[in-house]
UniProtKB/TrEMBL annotation:
Limits of the DAGKc domain: 135-286
GO cellular component, one term: membrane
Protein name according to UniProt: Ceramide kinase
Protein source organism: Amphiprion percula (Orange clownfish)
GO BP annotations, alphabetical order: ceramide metabolic process
SUPFAM superfamilies per UniProt: NAD kinase/diacylglycerol kinase-like
Length: 555
């Protein structure tokens, strides 16, 4: 248990004409109402409030002039005569308040003091405490995609986010992108990264993908790492990334914060939260293709994305329409998946436990990963294939999905792989074998209910560090020959299906959906890089189940 920290200040101050004992320690600001009679009064407002110093946004002096009180932002607020007589000086504390469903709001409380010097002392003491928090960003580089989601990125930033950054004293350099890959290329070559404490992305998962491509690429080049080599250990990015959701799916924001709300995201950035995250590198024949942090999907999700790109004008609803269309189309895909199971880790894709704020699974597996990386370096063995045995599965699939995190989003609040972890160095490889439309619908529907979408005979899931996929049409003749010998019976059925499309399953080519972008190649080699990037987030918070004894109001 955290020890109650030393008291910095204790005064009797007023909040809306009621006297409170207000105390400031290194960790908490607490205001307790003076109780004149010990009799409990059910209709009186709450007696004690406590705010963690780490969740104070800022403190603002309220100046008085001619019966009005001037705020620091220049606006004026009329004060009542009685209040004016009683109190000479006041200050307002802005702080994080938790609302329903992981939403945060900026709340404020104004304390009035009996004299000016006391008020100044309070203001400077709170500011001093805030200044000791080194994790808070001071200068941010902001990229806005004006065409993401419902095309509201610019408005969302200007109306909901910029005023909060201004109140918190965070300075920004804002770039509204003019074309696709503008943000990526700016980060890769031009941006003066040393000037900033973080990068903010206003847009959807596609825009976030641009940001990480720019940042990761730049970091590798600066550190002399070859991004084209799939076996290289990548250098971690030091700049944190904040996501202001303004896209169509926004699953990276949803899965790391618990809600898609611009104000909540802005507050997580201001308080300087940090959430490490795994990144998959995707290669084809020793050539770098892309990075992925959420979904790599071949088959169903690849086709939904390809189809939905033509319907971009529809906004986020394009995914539902394309989803329905591809569900009815019911294509299957043949190929070979090989993977390296993640060994020595804790956690499986079928766990009931979820990755939450301060996740111990991520901490344990992240530690294991860095220890292994060190021993590989000492042995001069950068190739992590020695990690374990490769396994191979050949077959016909409706979907092949790799979820490096849960991929929770408003469409599916538990996500594609509900027990996946944000920062454990693994990805969950989900194979949905060819099945009837009815069965596939059962599987899809379970993404929206409490039922387990993996508890079906045609679905399997593996927690892996690395995997490869080779579509059947890319396999060499000798590999196909091997296939034929191993699986002659199924091949005959597949031939029958091809000759009689009316049976309802059509073999086809698909493409990979990589965090919402279509990959140019289908034969790919994927490797997870544990905790390569950091976000201004803290993971989804668990609602408190018992009274927190470190909270002064609980004692
Ligand atoms: C029948 C209901 C089935 C609901 C199944 C929902 C599963 C949803 C899992 C979503 C995982 C999303 C992973 C994130 C992907 C994003 O990177 C990426 C890009 O995001 P951005 O546009 O913000 O840049 N987004 C996507 O690729 C969108 C995927 C959306 C898939 C929607 C699928 C809808 C399926 C509807 C089937 C309908 C069958 C109805 C039969 C009567
Ligand atoms: N100024 C721009 N004009 C056109 N496309 C852009 C611009 N800025 C970014 N993009 C691209 O828009 C695509 C979709 O962006 P995103 O913000 O993810 O929205 P959505 O969630 O609606 O897909 C991304 O591929 C991104 O590269
Ligand atoms: Ca992971």
């Amino acid at each position: 248990m955290e020890r109650p920290s030393r008291l910095v200040l204790l005064s009797e101050l007023r909040v809306r004409n009621t006297t409170y004992d207000v105390s400031l320690s290194r960790s908490q600001l607490t205001w307790k109402r003076r109780v004149s009679s010990p009799v409990y009064h059910p209709f009186r407002p709450s007696v004690c409030h406590s705010v963690s110093v780490s969740e104070i946004i800022s403190v603002r002096e309220e100046e008085e002039e001619n019966g009005s009180r001037r705020r620091e932002d220049g606006s004026w607020k009329k004060i009542k005569e009685r209040e004016e007589k009683d109190c000479r000086q006041a200050f307002t504390v802005l702080y994080v308040e938790r609302c329903r469903q992981h939403r945060w709001r900026c709340a404020e409380v104004t304390f009035t003091c009996s004299d000016g010097p006391l008020c100044q002392h309070w203001i400077s003491s709170i500011r001093e405490q805030l200044a000791t928090i080194s994790s808070r960003p001071k200068h941010l580089l902001v990229y806005i995609n004006p065409y993401g989601g419902k095309r509201q990125g610019k408005r969302i930033y200007e109306q909901k986010v910029a005023p909060l950054f201004a109140q918190a004293g965070v300075s920004t350099h804002v770039i509204v992108t003019e074309y696709a890959n503008h943000a990526r290329d700016h980060l890769k070559t031009e941006a003066e990264l040393k000037k900033f404490d973080g990068v903010v992305c206003v847009g959807g998962d596609g825009m976030f993908s641009e940001i990480i491509h720019g940042l990761i690429w730049r970091t590798q080049i600066d550190n002399g790492v070859d991004p084209n080599c799939p076996d290289e250990t990548l250098s971690g990015c030091s700049l944190r990334i904040g996501i202001i959701p303004a896209g169509s799916t926004d699953c990276i924001c949803f899965a790391t914060v618990g809600t898609n709300d611009p104000v909540t995201s802005a507050l997580h950035i201001i308080v300087g939260d940090s959430q490490p995250m795994d990144v998959c590198s995707v290669h084809h024949n020793n050539t770098f293709l892309r990075y992925s942090v959420s979904l790599l999907g071949y088959g169903f999700y690849g086709d939904v994305l390809t189809d939905s790109e033509r319907k971009r004008w529809m906004g986020p609803a394009r995914y539902d329409l394309s989803g329905l269309k591809m569900f009815l189309t019911h294509h299957y895909y043949e190929g070979t998946v090989s993977y390296l199971p993640a060994r020595g880790i804790i956690g499986t894709p079928r766990d009931a436990a979820r990755c939450r704020s301060g996740c111990v699974v991520c901490q344990h597996n992240g530690q294991l990963h860095s220890e292994r990386a060190e021993s590989y370096e000492m042995d001069d063995m950068s190739n992590c294939e020695s990690d374990g045995e490769w396994r191979t599965i050949r077959g016909k699939f409706l979907a092949i999905n790799a979820a490096s995190m849960s991929c929770a989003c408003p469409r599916s609040p538990k996500g594609l792989s509900p027990a996946a972890h944000l920062a454990d160095g693994t990805t969950d490889l989900i194979l949905v074998r060819k099945c009837s439309r009815f069965d596939f619908l059962r599987h899809l529907l379970r993404h929206t209910s409490k039922d387990d979408q993996f508890d079906l005979t045609f679905v399997e899931v593996h927690r892996v560090r690395r995997f490869r996929f080779m579509p059947r049409h890319c396999q060499s003749d000798s590999e196909l020959e091997l296939d034929l010998q191993e699986n002659s019976k199924h091949q005959i059925f597949s031939q029958i299906c091809r000759d009689h499309p009316a049976c309802g399953c059509a073999p086809a080519y698909s493409s990979w959906n990589c965090d919402g972008e279509i990959l140019t190649h289908t034969a790919i080699d994927v490797r997870v890089h544990c905790q390569l990037i950091n976000l201004f987030a803290r993971g989804i918070e668990e609602p408190p189940v018992f009274e927190d004894l470190t909270n002064p109001c609980a004692i």
